[in-house]
Design a protein that fits this description.
- The chain has 239 residues and is α/β, with parallel strands linked by helices.
- The chain has helices at residues 5-20, 25-31, 56-63, 83-104, 117-127, 148-151, 187-194, 223-226, 228-238; strands at 39-44, 69-73, 109-115, 129-133, 138-143, 154-160, 172-173, 200-203.
- It has one domain: Alpha/Beta hydrolase fold, catalytic domain (Rossmann fold, 3-Layer(aba) Sandwich), CATH 3.40.50.1820.
- 38% of the residues lie in helices and 18% in strands.
- α7 (187-194) links the parallel β7 and β8 (200-203).
- α5 packs across α7 (187-194).
Length: 239
């Protein structure tokens, strides 16, 4: 499989970071609930991260002071190998999980959050997906957007270092807001995401090689040191 230098550098940097970063999985699994909650956060981790990954900090911040708040981890490989199958399986899992939860818990408010490959995944959940991913020389399976009844329950979507970051969208934040990433959205998929623009914030650092075609991999690894409080505050304004 053909792999760009960006994906190679991302693989090495994220692998090293995953080994160094403490896992929040135990803490987060304790919070995960099978029953309906007032607020449920669906989390799609970044490539090579252990569940729940860096976004555990964000879920902690969102759920603080909310008495009935839970999280659901999107189950998918989160690998660079067989990238199309990895992200495609995550989209399929997320669509089913969110739609099933929204139907079972009609009074719950839903939040979607994704980082890196997980941001690609969560954006595709809202926009619809499918097509050639030239950087990995593979084709992602076609999927429809999240069903309208479930999408109405989604109050907020936060994306960080999105593989599919597209320049100059109204919901873009950070120094990379005017830049595009590895696989920018276009056409009907961009239109599908923009239907939900008022619910979305997408952070991209200016030299992040994944979302803004930059040259500093460190900028891809620090979103939750920089923007956790801002993201949590945004989410809470939507609940």
């Amino acid at each position: 499989m053909y792999t760009t230098p960006i994906f190679v550098s991302a693989l090495l940097a994220l692998a090293q970071a995953a080994q160094a970063a403490p896992s929040l999985a135990t803490k987060m699994h304790m919070r995960r609930q099978a029953n309906c909650t007032n607020v449920q956060v669906f989390v799609a981790r970044g490539s090579l991260e252990e569940i729940p990954g860096r976004q555990g900090k964000l879920v902690d911040a969102v759920c603080k002071d909310i008495s009935s708040c839970g999280s659901t981890d999107i189950q998918y490989p989160a690998t660079f190998d067989a990238y199309c199958k990895s992200v495609g399986s995550g989209v399929a899992f997320a669509l089913n999980a969110v739609e099933t939860y929204a139907k079972a818990c009609p009074n719950s408010k839903i939040v979607l959050t994704g980082y890196s490959q997980g941001a690609h995944l969560m954006g595709d959940v809202m926009s619809g997906a499918g097509g050639l991913i030239p950087n990995q020389n593979c084709t992602q399976a076609k999927t429809a957007p999240l069903a309208a009844a479930a999408a109405e329950k989604v109050m907020a979507v936060t994306l960080f270092g999105d593989v599919r970051h597209t320049a100059s969208q109204t919901y873009n934040l950070g120094e990379g807001a005017a830049k595009s990433g590895i696989l920018p959205r276009n056409g009907t998929q961009l239109d599908g995401l923009n239907i939900h623009s008022e619910k979305i914030h997408s952070w991209c650092n200016g030299e992040d090689p994944v979302c803004s075609s930059g040259n500093d991999m460190e900028q891809h690894l620090t979103y939750f040191d920089q923007f956790t409080d801002d993201a949590a505050a945004f989410i809470k304004t939507k609940l």
